[in-house]
Amino acid sequence: MRFRLPAVLLTLLFCASAAAQVCRLSVAGLNRNRRVTGDISAECPDPLHTAPFGNWGASSNFGPKRNGHQFDGWCRDMRVCDNNGLCFNLCGDGWYEWNSCTTHPLYKAPNCTMYNANECTGQASTQDVNVLGTQTVDLPVSCPRLSADGRRYESGGCLEAREYTRTDNFISAYELDPITGDELIQSLYFPALTVKGKCNIWGCAAAGSDWLPPVAWDSPSFPVKVYAEMAMVVNSGTFVNPNNVCRIDPLPLQAVSSASFAAGELAADSIVSIFAADLTVDTESAASQPLPATLAGLQVRISNAAGVSRNAGLVFASPNQLNVVLPTGLPEGEATLAVLSGGTVRSQNTVRMARVSPGVFAADASGRGAAAAVAIRVAADGTQTSQVTFQCSGEPAQCVPVPISFGAPADQLVLVLFGTGIRGRSDLANVQVSVGGLLLPVQYAGAQGGFAGLDQVNIALPRALAGRGITAVQLFVDGRPANPVLIVLG
C-alpha cells in the first residue's frame, strides 16, 4: 500500500536534498578551426540585404543562440570586389564574418576578395578559439574525510569530480538577422568530451578536453557546409558545503621564515612561508605592490592574544605553500595564524611573534649554500662596480658562490646581504656579521625598500679577508643568529 506523504515532509526532504554538498564546476564549450564550403544563400542581396557578408552565431549544448562571437569568420574591415569588378568596403562593424551569398553570381567562387581558402573557393576563420557558452554544473560529492594522521583530507569533496564527461555535444550555426529572422545553416554533432580535472578536496584548477572533429551533420546532412572542432574546458571547481552539512576541521600548518626556513619565532613585517596540505588547486603570484590580501582564493589572517586580527599581504600561493608578508606592528607573544578560503578557516596553528627573527636568503631559496648577495667595489674616485656573488644552472637550480675580487689596493669592498625579519632590530651596534670567523660591524641593516618585507644588510669587508676562498657568513641581530650562507673571497 502506498501512503501519501504530507506536504511538510516533502518540503523537508526536498530541502535536505537541495542542501547536499557538491563540487560546483564552471564549464565552457569552445570551437576552433571553423571552415565554410559549398553553397550558402542565407543573406544574398535583395531589397533588405545588399551585402554578401553575414553575421553568424551558434547555439550549442553549452548555450543558446546569441550574437556573441560564437562562430566568427574571416572578413573584417576589408576592401572586396564582386565578380563584375565593383569594389567597396565591407565588414566595418568589427565582426569577423562569412560570405553568406556564395550562390549569387556576383559573389560566387573563385574570388580572392570574397574567399580566403582553397584557392579562393572556400572560407576559413582567421580567428582562433571562440567560446560557445559557459554553464554551472553541480556534481554531488561526499563530505571530505581526514587521513588517519589528521594532517590532510584524503577523499571526498572535489576529488570525486576529477573527471567530467558531456555526451550531448552539438553546434548549430545560424546567419543572424533581427529583421528577416535567423536562418539555420547546418548543425554539427560531436562525440563525448571528457575533462580530466586537476582537483583536490576543495576545488579544481582549469583543465580542458581534447579537440574533436564532428561525426555527423544535419539540416542538411549532406553536403557538409560547415566544419569546426569542439572542446570543453572546466574553468574552475569549488567545493560547496551548504549549511555546513559537512564538518570541516582546520588542518595544521607550519610557518617559517622564507629566508632561513628555520622553525621558531616570526617577526612582524617579515616574509613568511606557510606549509599545509591542499591549500588551493591554483598557483598565483602577486603582480604588483601593495601586496593583495587574496591570491588563488586564499587569505591569511593573524590574530593576537587580545583577539585583534589582521590580514597578511600575499606574495605567492600554491597548493601546499604560501609566501606572505606579515603585517607591521604585531605585538610579541603568541598569535594564531590561519589560512582562509571563502571565509572558512582551511588551516591554522599557533605561532610566536618576536621583535626580530633574522634570516638571510640563499641563491637557491633553500636557506643554505651560496648567499643571494651582491658585492659592490668602490674605487678611489667614487666609481661603483657591482657583482652578483653566485651563479645558478640546471633545473632545479644548482647554485654555487663565485669569487669576489677585492680590486685595486685603494678599492673598498661592501657585501650586501638580503634577508627578512631584521628591520625590527634595536640599535645598529647590535647587528654584526661573522665572515670567516671575523666578527664585523654593519653599515646598514633595515628595509630594502623595493619589496615588502625584504631587508638589506651592508658590510664593509676588510682586505685582510682577500684570498680566503669559500667562506661562511653569519648574521647576528640583537643576539639572535641567522642561517649561515657562503661566499667565495678571491
Summarize the structure.
This protein is mainly β and 490 residues long.
Distance between the termini: 96 Å
- Major sheet characteristics: 7 strands, antiparallel
Task: Indicate the overall shape.
Answer: elongated
- Our Rg estimate from Cα atoms comes to 33 Å
Please give the count of helices. 1
- Ranges with pLDDT <50 over ≥5 residues? 1-18
Helix content: under 10%
Oligomer: single chain
Kindly report the average pLDDT value: 92
Number of strands: 45
**Residue share in β-strands:** over 45%
Helix-strand category: mainly beta
Describe this entry's structure for a reader:
The chain is mostly beta strands. Helix content is 2%, strand content 45%. The strands form eleven sheets. Strands 1, 8, 9, 16, 17, 18 and 20 form a seven-stranded antiparallel β-sheet that branches. Strand 43 and strand 44 form a beta hairpin. The radius of gyration is 33 Å and the shape is elongated. The chain starts with 6 loop residues before the first helix and ends with a strand. The model is unreliable at 1-18 (pLDDT under 50).
Structural key phrases:
490 residues; 2% helix; six-stranded mixed β-sheet; single chain; mainly beta; disordered N terminus; 1 helix; seven-stranded antiparallel β-sheet
How would the blueprint of this fold be written?
Blueprint: H1 7-18, E1 22-36, E2 53-54, E3 56-60, E4 63-66, E5 78-81, E6 87-90, E7 98-99, E8 123-124, E9 130-140, E10 145-146, E11 153-155, E12 163-166, E13 170-175, E14 183-189, E15 193-196, E16 198-199, E17 203-205, E18 207-208, E19 216-218, E20 226-240, E21 251-252, E22 254-257, E23 266-267, E24 271-275, E25 284-285, E26 298-304, E27 309-311, E28 313-317, E29 321-325, E30 333-341, E31 344-354, E32 359-360, E33 374-378, E34 384-388, E35 390-393, E36 398-401, E37 403-404, E38 412-420, E39 431-435, E40 438-441, E41 444-447, E42 455-461, E43 469-477, E44 480-481, E45 485-489
Parallel strand pairs: 21-31, 23-31, 37-45
Antiparallel strand pairs: 1-8, 1-9, 1-20, 2-7, 3-4, 3-13, 5-6, 10-11, 12-15, 13-14, 14-19, 16-17, 17-20, 18-20, 22-24, 24-29, 25-28, 26-27, 26-30, 28-29, 30-31, 32-38, 33-34, 33-38, 35-36, 38-42, 39-40, 39-43, 41-42, 43-44, 43-45
